[in-house]
Amino acid sequence: MSTFQDLGLNKDLLQAITDLGFEKPSEVQEKAVPILLNSETDLVALAQTGTGKTAAFGFPMLQKIDVDSRTTQGLILSPTRELCLQITNEMKLYGKYCKGLNVVAVYGGASITEQAREIKRGAQIIVATPGRMKDMISRRLVDITKIEYAVLDEADEMLNMGFKEDITSILSHTPDDKSTWLFSATMPREVAAIAKNFMYNPQEITVGRKNESTSQVSHEYYLVNARDRYQALKRLADANPDIFSVIFCRTKRDTQKVAERLIEDGYSAGALHGDLSQNQRDLVMKSFRNKQIQMLVATDVAARGIDVDDITHVINYQLPDEIETYTHRSGRTGRAGKTGVSMVIVSKSEVRKIKSIERIIKKQFEKKDIPNGMEICEVQLMSLAKKVHHTDVNHDIDAYLGDINALFEDTSKDELIKKFFSVEFSRFYNYYQKALDLNISTSNDDHKDSGNSVRYFINVGKKDGFDWMSLKDFLKEVLELGQDDVFKVEAKDTFSFFNTEKGLQEKVLGFFNDFKYNGRFVNVEISENRGRGRKRDRNRGKRRDDRKGSFNSGKKGGRRSEGASKSRRSKSGDIASSRPRRSRR
Ligand code: ADP
Ligand code: MG
C-alpha cells in the first residue's frame, strides 16, 4: 500500500493533502496518479462513485500545469452544475498552496459575463458543464486551443444526458496533441465509442468491486402494488427512525409530488430536481447537509455527484430506466467506510429488472417485507425509549419540576412510564392499527384491483414512440397526476390502454377532449374491459362495434373495449379522424 509521497506528488500538494486529512491514496488514485504524472498519455479509468476520482485526475493536473502562465491548460467537463461546482471546490482545496492557481467553474444558469470575466483574469483550469462550455466557445469568451489536458468526468452520465454532440464540438476546438483522461463509473457502448474516436491508445485502469464503498451497501427489494408505493415508502421511513436518505424518482414531477406528500405527512423532506431554481437547489442541499432534511427526494440528474457521506439509505422509489443508473444511485450510500442500504420498491411488472441489476452489480438482493403497522409501532417505541435513555437532562426545566411533580404525585414510576410512552406510541398506533399488509406475492399473477378503477383506450402507442413506461410518464405529465394515479399501462403498436381511479374519469376524458400530440388529436375513450380478461371482452366489443354510434359520436364517455379497438382500427384506419375536431383554447 503506497503513500501519497510514493505517488510522486510535490510538496504543495502533499501539504494540502495533509490539511484535508487524507491518509492514504484510494485505489483509483494509486493507479491513476503515477501514470498521469509520469507520462503524457490518454487514460480511461473506471471506478465507482465515491472512490476519489476527482483527486485521481486533479492531483496530476495541478502538478503538471504551469501556474505562472495565464493560459488555460486544463479543461474538466462534468455533467451537472452541482458536480462542476464540487470539482472546482475540490481542485481549489487540493491546489491551495499552488500560488497563482486560478480554477474557474463554467455552468449554465449563472451569469455568462461574470464567468467570462473570471476566465479573462487567467484561468489555468476550467471546470465546465458541456452546454455552457459550448456556448462560451461559440461566443468566443474562452480559448481552449492550447489546453494540454482534457478530463471527461462521469463520462457515462454525460452521454446519458445527451451531451455527446456538445462534447464532440468542444473537443474539436482543442489541440490534437493534448492528453484526454476519461473517468466513468460504467463502460457502456457509448463511452467505449468516445474512447475509441477521441483518444489515442489510452491506458486503462479499472477499480474492481473490492472498493470499500460499494461492498458496504446491501441491496433489498420490496414488492408492492404500484399504487401502494407511497405508503410503502412511508413505512420504510417509519421503520427506520434515524433514516438519512436519498429517494430516487424517475421524473421531476414525481420527485416534487413525493416530496410534497412527505412534507404534508410531517416528514422532514425536500425535493431536488432540475425545475427548481439554483437558489432553491442550493438551499435544499444545504438543509440536507445540515441534516435538517432527513429525506431528500431527487431525480438522477440532480442527485448526480451529491457528496454527502452519512447517507444511511438510498430508496429507489421507482427503478431507473437505465439499469446502470442503479449503480450510481446505490453509490450514494455506504461511503467513507460506512455501511448503507439500497432499497428498491418494485411492482410486479418491474420485478424482473431486479435480476438484471443483480447481474450488473454482481450482488444478490434480499427480498424483504414492508413492515406491518405493529412492527413499526414497536420500532418507534424502542427508538423513543433509547432516545429518552440517552438524553442529557436540561436543567432549565428544574424550575418547573415542582409543579410537574405535584401533578404526578400519585403516579407510580411504572404508570408514569406507560403514560409517557403512550403519548408517542398512540400517534403511530392510531395511524397504523388498521394498516393493511402492503406486500404482494410473486406467485399471484393478478393485480389487486380495488374495483374502483376505469380502463381507458388511447390511440397512441409504440408507433408514436411510447412504451408503457414513457406513456405512463406522459399521461401523468399532461394530466398533472401523481405517481401512482395512472396504472396498468399497456402500450400496443398504434394504441394503448391505461387505468385510473374512477374519480379521475371526468378529468381524463375532459382533458383529452381536444388534445393534440404531434399534430394529431389524441383520442381517449373508456374501454369496457377494466382488467385484462381478453376473451370475454372481445365478444362484447364486437357487439359494441356493431352499434357504432354509441362511441363514434365523439362525446365523452364513449366506450370501447380492448377487443373492439382492434377491429375498429382496421376498419377506419385512423381513429382520430372519427371524432369532431376542436381547437384548443
Ligand atoms: P468520485 O468522483 O469517485 O465519486 P470524489 O472524488 O468526489 O469521488 O471523492 C469522494 C470523497 O472522498 C470526497 O469527499 C473526497 O474529498 C474524499 N477523498 C478523496 N480521496 C480521498 C482519500 N485518499 N482519502 C480520504 N478521502 C478522500
Ligand atoms: Mg466524481
Describe the structure.
The protein has 24 helices and 20 strands. The chain is of the alpha/beta class and 585 residues long. It folds into four domains: 5-206, P-loop containing nucleotide triphosphate hydrolases (Rossmann fold, 3-Layer(aba) Sandwich); 217-372, Rossmann fold; 379-432, no CATH class; 445-547, 2-Layer Sandwich (Alpha-Beta Plaits). The strands form four sheets. A seven-stranded parallel β-sheet has the order 3-4-2-5-6-1-7, sandwiched between helices. A seven-stranded parallel β-sheet has the order 10-11-9-12-13-8-14, with helices on both faces. The chain has a four-stranded antiparallel β-sheet with strand order 16-17-15-20, with helices on one face. A hairpin with a 4-residue loop joins strand 16 (487-491) and strand 17 (496-501). Helix 2 runs parallel beside helix 3 (53-64), helix 3 crosses helix 4 and helix 15 crosses helix 16 (351-361). The site of adenosine-5'-diphosphate has 13 residues, from helix 3. Residues 2-30 form the DEAD-box RNA helicase Q domain.
